[in-house]
Amino acid sequence: MCFELLNILVENNQYKCNIYYQNEIIKSTGACSKKIYLIKNGVMKIGCFTDPGEEVVLIILTKNQVFGASSIFIDFCSYCMYESLSEETKVYEFDKNIIQKTIKKSPNLYKDFLSILGKEYQEYENRIKTLQIQSAELRLIKVLFEFKEKFGGPYNSEKIVINSPLNQNELSNYIRVSRVTTNKIINKFNNNHLLEYSNKSIIIKKSFFENYKQYNI
Fold this sequence. Notes:
Blueprint: H1 4-11, E1 16-21, E2 25-27, E3 32-33, E4 35-41, E5 43-49, E6 55-62, E7 66-67, E8 76-77, E9 81-84, E10 88-95, H2 96-105, H3 109-131, H4 136-151, E11 152-155, E12 159-163, H5 168-175, H6 179-191, E13 195-198, E14 201-205, H7 206-212
Helix pairs in contact: 5-6
């Protein structure tokens, strides 16, 4: 855990720990939250539904990422759904009233809270930037770099294995293209010996990083 404020609350046992199983809803659409959430272990997705009923995967979060920090300022009712993707996702929940009292006692922690809020919004900003890219291929490249940081296994000089939380249908949803388009791009990368893709296992080769290192930002 990298935030002093949340560390203090955990040390003082001023939090609640919940375990959510795969496909279990952490927070449902329309739920009004008065908590800040820290993912201690596991993976979750934030999604919503279009008017025709299509699910849109907005954000993928993993260990040591925070959501709900804006609830410290307002009682926020989200239109999104928060769902566990892991077999088990451990989430620490912090009551906003306790956070406010803790900051009031130690005003220096307000800066730490702003850091928490900033990291959450940076995740949203990065996601928006990815979706603004016109090229589906470049969107996939950006997401592969994102997944490398979040889900990549041990590095070696030639490749890295990514244990993706999304299958190909879900990955297509995440970059907002059809599965056919995603499959064509993956086949192109595979034919060029840049990666190997099998279900949720993605092996990214050294040549991929060399070819697209300018997008790793």
